[in-house]
Structure formats: structure tokens, C-alpha cells
């Protein structure tokens, strides 16, 4: 009310703008997080969330704090980041097409290199359509929010990746969750949905926190029974699963049943970018309807050129796949022999999650590992399922047998030092 | 139609195993404030409620539900549509 505002005693002498309410610090909500970070840095030598790779020597080795370190916490599953053909393709495109496109895919940002990359994806998957996004995160945002509109339903696994949740929030559909990897729970929820409503079920081949694999054959069959379309995110499986490296959906024999496959270039492919492939005849209309595709700049030509070269090599990389399986099984078995508790009974993927008792011992063990020259990923709630603390190991096809033995020796020493194993 | 008391009693039984602080329950009890539930607990609880009443409570709906009373309303409405 103007009268009240004009009352002189409401004016503080230090107010530049009289009567303006004092601004509330929007950062106040982060005070808990700031205190937690502060405590963590006080009690530990290294900061698990502040690692800097000073030099990168190979897909499996880097210099961290001046020390040569084995990398066991990257998503470089197939070790493509220093592949000579991949590097050559990127260097050539950088010189021929310049450093960036400065525009959207639907305006000036589609170069020959982007087309060639989409061709490589179509060949790799033997599918009719491929669409390259600037990241995998945006591929999920775009696909989910665009496919499912008002009145439609998106049905997601409770342990879905953040990009899947965010894709749900960006769209207007109704969101239903089912218990992680539980086919009966999914089917129960599908049965309760209106039979004629549009439905999109979003699944992941490999779940990245524990490295467990979805029962895709049973799940996709349940979706078909209830008239739901399916989208499978193969971020952590592409390159590794299936005879052609397409993902868990290939290994599970449901290639003809899945409607959309999403993936990323930031893991096995070894660069950055995201994509969706499909056989749906109307798929290409998404290039105009999908906001996270339209309203952002396209990837630099050198990036899509490296992705193309890498994807073309991944199709035939069965020897590498076999070695990655060998590494994953050896690490899983070895860690178990040492007495560690692991996220899965057997090695289901290239991710081996070591279950830790609490935050303090997680950080302490992480520190003991890095001091001995081994980098793994630390994961904690809310990113992890059921409030667990994890040291996540992800293997690379370029880890040698000797490196895996070294890794196990270091895990033995570190775990005994922090009392996590006997 | 099932009556309010019946729904409340069945919900109270479902809340019980998640009520670690033994907070007193009424229609005014809030899930985030009084019961101090995090998102993981909410997810498990919602799944249990859905199965008990054979309904679906979408995440969009969950965002609007803060108190036990609001959940009783929502369950009643969803049951009558089912
Ligand atoms: C399951 C899943 N989907 C999508 C993404 C996003 O991929 P990108 O790194 O390309 O944004 C990730 C990566 O963290 C992921 O784990």
C-alpha cells in the first residue's frame, strides 16, 4: 500500500532504493552442501570431486597431482580416445571444417560431417533413422519430452538416470514409476493405465550406479502386451553388449521390438554427443519438434568426425569386447576374494560397484586408492540407489591383465588400511 | 466407494513401517516435515499405496500431495474412477 510505504520510519539510511525489500540470499539453500564440502576437505588430503587430470597418457593412465595413476573410473569402456584413426578423422575435420558450427542443426549447423556421423549410426544399428544431439543428456530430454505430450504417460524405472527424470519434468506427460528392474511391478502399472492412452516406457540397458543389467526381453514383451512404445537408453552398454556392440537390447534379442534407442558418444565412442536411432517412419519430424535438438548449437565437426570413425570401428571390435568381459570378470572375482561387498552377484557389465559402509570410510578408502595411484569414482546419495555409498570401478578394454592385477593389489592394501576389509 | 476412515486406517498401516520417528499420525501430518521422508522413502511408500488400492499415483499428482489428508482424498478420488 502506497501510504504505508511512504512512512519515513520505514526507510533505512543505508537503503539506496527506499522501501525495497532486503534481498534474500538465494544461496542460503546451499549452506548445508557448503558445510558438507568444507568438512570433507578438512579431513582428507584429496578431494574426490576436485580431481584434475594434469596429463592424459592413454585411455587407462593419467597424471593426477604429479603422480601416474591408473584410471578405473572413466566411461572409456572401449578405449577409443587415442585410437589413431579416430584422432586422424578429428584432425582432418578440424582443419577442413573449422573449430565449430556456430549454429543449430536445423539452420547452419548441419555439415557433411554430421550427416556422415548419422550414416555411421544407421549402419551400426541397421536402423532407418538416426538423429545426433549435442549430448546424451539432451537426447533423453528431447526424446522423452517431445514423444510424450499432454495426456500421455511416461513409465520409468525408479533408478533412472537424471537425464530421464529431467526429460519427464521438461514435458507435459503424466509420469509413473516402477520398482527398479522389476518386470511384475512394471506390468502391474501398465495394466492400471487407461488402455487407449499413449504410453512410453523408458528403460536402460545397464544401470550405471550398480552396473546391473535390465531384463529387457521380459520388460519389452510386457510393454508390447499393453500397447506401450519403448525407449532404451544404452549409454553404458553400447560398444560392449551384443555381437555387433549395439547394446543389451541386441543381446536380449529384442532389436525388432524396441521403438527407440538412445545413446551417447561420451562413453564407448570416446568423445561427446548423444543420439537416438529408430525405424519409426515418421521419426525425422522430431528434427523440427524437439526443442533440445533445435535450440542449441550442433557439435563441432571434429567431434562428430571422431564419433563417426569410432562408431565404424566399434561394430567389428569383438576382440576388444571379449577382453573387456575378461577384465570385468577378473576384477569382480578378485575384489570379492579380497572381501569386498559388490553391487552385483556376478560381473554383469563393465561397471563393478564396491558397496561401502558409510560416507567417512568411502572417502577414506577413495583417498587410500588415489595415494597409491588408482582413480575410481565415488558415488553417494542421491545419485545412488537406496542411499548407498559406492566406489564405482569401470573397466576399459585397454586395461592389460597386469594392470587389473595391480588394481587388485592396490584395493587390497587400501581396504586393509581403512578397515573396510579384514 | 470406500469411506475416509477405512482409507486412513489402511494408509496408517502402510505408513507404519516407514515411520522411524514414530511421529503421531493425523490427516494433518506432512510427509516431508513430520515424517521426514526423503525421495527414496516416498517412492517405496507410493508403490505400496498403489498396490494396496490398485491405483496409480503419478509423480505429477505426488507433487501436489503434502499431507496424509490430501493422500486420503487422492486415494478416494482414484478409487472412484477405477
Ligand atoms: C544412462 C545415461 N543416460 C544418459 C547419459 C548422458 O550422457 P551424456 O554424457 O552424453 O550427456 C548418461 C551419462 O552420464 C547416462 O549414464
From TrEMBL, chain B:
Gene3D superfamilies: ACP-like
Domain Carrier: 2-79
PROSITE patterns, per database record: CARRIER
Pfam families membership: PP-binding (PF00550)
Keywords assigned by UniProt, alphabetized: Transferase
The keyword tRNA-binding appears for this protein: no
UniProt-listed InterPro entries: ACP-like_sf, PP-bd_ACP
Top-level division of the source organism's lineage: Bacteria
GO MF term (any one): transferase activity
Name the UniProt record assigns to this protein: Acyl carrier protein associated with serine palmitoyltransferase
Organism, scientific name: uncultured Sphingomonadaceae bacterium
Amino acid at each position: 500500500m502506497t501510504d504505508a510505504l511512504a512512512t519515513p520510519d520505514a526507510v533505512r539510511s543505508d537503503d539506496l532504493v527506499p522501501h525495497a525489500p532486503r534481498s534474500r540470499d538465494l544461496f542460503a539453500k546451499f549452506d548445508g552442501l557448503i558445510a558438507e564440502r568444507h568438512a570433507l576437505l578438512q579431513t582428507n588430503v584429496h578431494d574426490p570431486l576436485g580431481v584434475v587430470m594434469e596429463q592424459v597418457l592413454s585411455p587407462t593412465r593419467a597424471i593426477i597431482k604429479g603422480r601416474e595413476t591408473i584410471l578405473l573410473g572413466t566411461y572409456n569402456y572401449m578405449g577409443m580416445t587415442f585410437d589413431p584413426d579416430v584422432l586422424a578423422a578429428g584432425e582432418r575435420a578440424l582443419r577442413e571444417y573449422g573449430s565449430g558450427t556456430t549454429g543449430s542443426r536445423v539452420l547452419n549447423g548441419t555439415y557433411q560431417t554430421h550427416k556422415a556421423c548419422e550414416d555411421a549410426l544407421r549402419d551400426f544399428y541397421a536402423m532407418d533413422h538416426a538423429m545426433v544431439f549435442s549430448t546424451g543428456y539432451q537426447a533423453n530430454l528431447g526424446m522423452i519430452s517431445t514423444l510424450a505430450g499432454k495426456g500421455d504417460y511416461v513409465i520409468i524405472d525408479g533408478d533412472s538416470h537424471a537425464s530421464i527424470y529431467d526429460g519427464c519434468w521438461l514435458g507435459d506427460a503424466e509420469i509413473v514409476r516402477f520398482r527398479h528392474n522389476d518386470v511384475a511391478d512394471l506390468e502391474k502399472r501398465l495394466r492400471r493405465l487407461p488402455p487407449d492412452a499413449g504410453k512410453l516406457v523408458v528403460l536402460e540397458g545397464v544401470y550405471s550406479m550398480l552396473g546391473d543389467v535390465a531384463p529387457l526381453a521380459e520388460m519389452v514383451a510386457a510393454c508390447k502386451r499393453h500397447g506401450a512404445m519403448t525407449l532404451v537408453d544404452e549409454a553404458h552398454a553400447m560398444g560392449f553388449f551384443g555381437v555387433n556392440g549395439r547394446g543389451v537390447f541386441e543381446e536380449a534379442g529384442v532389436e525388432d521390438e524396441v521403438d527407440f534407442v538412445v545413446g551417447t558418444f561420451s562413453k564407448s565412442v570416446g568423445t561427446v554427443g548423444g543420439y537416438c536411432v529408430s525405424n519409426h517412419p515418421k521419426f525425422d519430424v522430431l528434427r523440427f519438434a524437439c526443442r533440445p535438438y533445435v535450440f542449441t548449437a550442433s557439435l563441432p565437426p571434429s567431434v562428430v568426425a571422431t564419433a563417426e570413425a569410432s562408431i565404424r570401428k566399434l561394430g567389428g571390435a569383438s576382440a576388444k569386447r571379449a577382453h573387456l568381459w575378461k577384465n570385468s570378470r577378473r576384477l569382480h572375482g578378485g575384489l570379492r576374494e579380497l572381501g569386498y561387498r559388490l553391487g552385483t552377484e556376478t560381473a554383469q557389465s563393465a561397471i563393478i560397484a564396491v558397496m561401502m559402509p558409510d560416507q567417512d570410510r568411502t572417502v577414506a578408502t577413495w583417498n587410500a586408492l588415489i595415494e597409491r595411484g588408482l582413480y575410481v569414482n565415488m558415488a553417494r546419495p542421491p545419485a545412488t540407489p537406496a542411499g548407498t555409498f559406492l566406489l564405482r570401478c569401470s573397466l576399459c578394454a585397454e586395461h592389460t591383465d597386469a594392470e587389473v592385477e595391480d588394481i587388485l593389489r592396490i584395493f587390497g592394501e587400501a581396504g586393509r588400511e581403512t578397515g573396510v576389509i579384514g | 466407494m470406500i469411506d475416509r476412515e477405512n482409507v486412513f486406517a489402511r494408509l496408517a498401516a502402510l505408513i507404519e513401517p516407514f515411520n522411524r520417528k514414530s511421529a503421531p499420525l493425523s490427516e494433518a501430518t506432512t510427509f516431508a516435515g513430520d515424517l521426514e521422508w526423503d525421495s527414496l522413502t516416498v517412492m517405496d511408500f507410493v508403490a505400496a499405496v498403489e498396490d494396496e488400492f490398485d491405483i496409480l499415483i503419478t509423480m505429477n499428482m505426488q507433487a501436489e500431495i503434502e499431507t496424509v489428508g490430501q493422500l486420503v482424498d487422492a486415494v478416494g478420488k482414484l478409487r472412484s474412477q477405477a
